Amino acid sequence: MVTVSDELIDRIIAEDVPYFDLTSHVLGVAEQQGTMEYFTREACVLAGVEIVERIACKLGCRVVDRAASGDSLEAGQSFMTMEGSAAALHRAWKVCLNVFDHCSAVATKTRAMTDAAHAVNPACEILATRKSMPGVKSLLIDAVLAGGAFPHRLGLSETVLVFDHHLTFMGGFEKFVEQLPAIRPRCAEKKLFVEVDAQRALQLARFNAESMRVCAESDGRVPWAGVDGVQVDKLSVDELADLVKQLRAIDPRLTIVAAGGVNDKNVAAYAGTGVDGLATTAPYTAKPIDMSVRMRMR
Length: 298
Description:
single chain, alpha/beta, TIM Barrel, four-stranded antiparallel beta sheet, elongated, nicotinate-nucleotide diphosphorylase (carboxylating) activity, Putative pyrophosphorylase ModD, Quinolinate_PRibosylTase_N_sf, transferase
């Protein structure tokens, strides 16, 4: 489970329950005891369970039965039951439902894309990008993991990924390549990736191969100074397949990630090119799952 702060949990609650459930109070039923059962109207992959448990607890409910995040559910299946007063159950109702239907949607689409990719290339992973809705990143990452994929980058402080915008301040791509022997040691235990077009990807693969040759011939006295991987953006499936073959022939160790336009409709075709990973924002565009609750008096 991804770490989710109490501050975020409190903020999610406050959006829907700033004070109390006015309707239960007006009707005079606030203290009556009951149960609330969550169920789905469509097949899905469940996500957000641990987060909802914390929300329910803060709102005065007790979870007595639940499925696990990552479980596959059939239409009509119940997946969580909680107990509490009518006021507490109504406070939790929509807050928890919103977490379930949005997070489960992301997990469901992620699982479909992961399964499609693995069916043709078991070594290709789905990598969810950091182009997510601000403020709820931890919930979305949790949903992506429940769906069987991985985060591409959790933030700028995590990985070294060189973009064209960085190269602008270095004097261009050629200057960057010239400085690689000095840049490489600074990465220490970090991986060094570069987003490039096909031509530059081939140039970096050749640089890697030459650097490896020099390193071997010097018995390691001249350290290897190449890049760990390339990220290629917005290539067609045919263009990518041809590029992957060329890159593998030059530098078999190079990690290849494809990005740009990868979605649930073409993910299998892109995975079939032989890449190591597919960076995509598509899971975040999933339509919320149709879920609801049943309440009963105790």
